[in-house]
Design brief:
Layout lengths: L1 H30 L2 E5 L8 E2 L5 E2 L1 H14 L5 E5 L5 H6 L5 E2 L7 H6 L2 E3 L4 E3 L1 E6 L14 E5 L4 H11 L5 E5 L2 H9 L5 E5 H8 L8 E3 L7 E3 L2 E3 L3 H19 L7 H7 L3 H6 L16 H9 L2 H9 L28
């Protein structure tokens, strides 16, 4: 009986472990909804428009996943998350995926119960100051007060910056970017610090954007990546390859407008595999072979998404830089889809 009990317990534990590891994809498909963690509102990345529809770069990454998995880019429940909530929300199972300007760090990856997927935006931290302050570089902020958001990498980064430059900075901590930015605008602090892309986003909402300067230096590495619950390997793999597919699509010239034509007429064996004209790559991530076609039809390739929210025709107008393809001197490089 003791042996039988041990075998029964072992079988039960294995069953529980298998259920925990494989849970997200099956549950999402069964419920017909993807629960997506986003920011509380950062223009360009994730914010509701005048009709209440969520839009932005991070939102489109989530829509691509929903289209691939559920065949409907709108089958999403959006959950706005404060910075201090964003990690625990996915590690606890409150959301299936977080696509929300989050830096991939060793502590978050190794100790906080999440797994990152693909770096979709290479950023760095900077300072915003009022133009009439007359400051041109961060080291000139000695003795200044700086607004910073709690629960972000910005707190540690700005402390490291002060030590490295042998200056003193008074950090004033706020719970949200909106609170921190409004405090800076109101003159409660001399400067505001966060990722440069978010500084550019927030500056567009200032009463007089031209009165504010983003200093040219960046003093940290901020690789931003969507993430899932740690240990859910099947779900992590799926999200990872959907995002890589968007990057590879840009490299191969596959767009929202021509994706079906490319499937039908391309002689490129990589394109044929990607779009399901040959092979069976969908089975590698437990989807059909049109998964990437649906994602691209929903939101376009990576370049189309970037230009829609940060391109030269937008208020933010952030040059591609590191976020360009590796073939054009950037850092975007998709793993081989084969």
């Amino acid at each position: 009986m003791k042996l039988f009990g041990k075998l029964l317990l072992t079988a039960l534990l294995l069953t529980m472990a298998s259920t925990a590891m494989a849970g997200s994809l099956e549950r999402i498909q069964e419920n017909g909804i993807l629960t997506l963690g986003v920011s509380e509102g950062v223009a360009g990345f994730s914010a509701p428009d005048s009709n209440g529809r969520w839009t932005g770069f991070d939102v489109d990454m989530g829509r691509a996943v929903a289209a691939a998995v559920l065949k409907d880019q709108d089958a999403i429940k959006f959950v706005p998350l404060a910075s201090k909530q964003k990690i625990v929300a996915v590690s606890s199972g409150q959301v299936d995926l977080v696509s929300r300007t989050t830096t991939w760090t060793m502590k978050r990856d190794g100790k906080q119960g999440v797994d990152f997927t693909v770096v979709v935006f290479y950023d760095g931290q900077g300072f915003m100051v009022k133009k009439d302050l007359g400051v041109t570089k961060g080291a000139e902020l000695d003795g200044a007060s700086v607004a910073v958001v709690s629960g972000t990498t910005s707190e540690l980064n700005v402390a490291d910056f002060a030590r490295m430059n042998n200056i003193k900075l008074e950090t004033v901590v706020f719970d949200s970017k909106k609170e921190a930015f409004n405090a800076y605008i109101a003159g409660r602090t001399d400067a505001f610090t966060t990722d440069v892309s978010q500084l550019a986003s927030l500056r567009t909402s200032a009463p007089n954007p031209a009165d504010h300067v983003i200093l040219s230096e960046t003093f940290s590495k901020e690789p931003l990546a969507p993430y899932v619950r740690h240990g859910d390997n099947q779900w992590k793999d799926l999200v990872t390859w959907v995002l890589y597919g968007l990057i590879e699509a840009e490299e191969k010239g596959i767009t929202q407008a021509n994706v079906l034509e490319m499937k039908k007429n391309s002689n490129d064996p990589v394109v044929k595999r990607m779009l399901g004209a040959s092979g069976d790559i969908g089975s590698f991530i437990n989807l059909d072979n049109d998964w990437l076609i649906r994602a691209i039809q929903a939101v376009g390739n990576y370049g189309e998404i970037y230009n829609r929210h940060f391109g030269p025709d937008t208020a933010m107008n952030i040059p591609r830089g590191h976020n360009d393809l590796w073939t054009r001197g950037g850092m975007l490089y998709a793993m081989p889809i084969r």
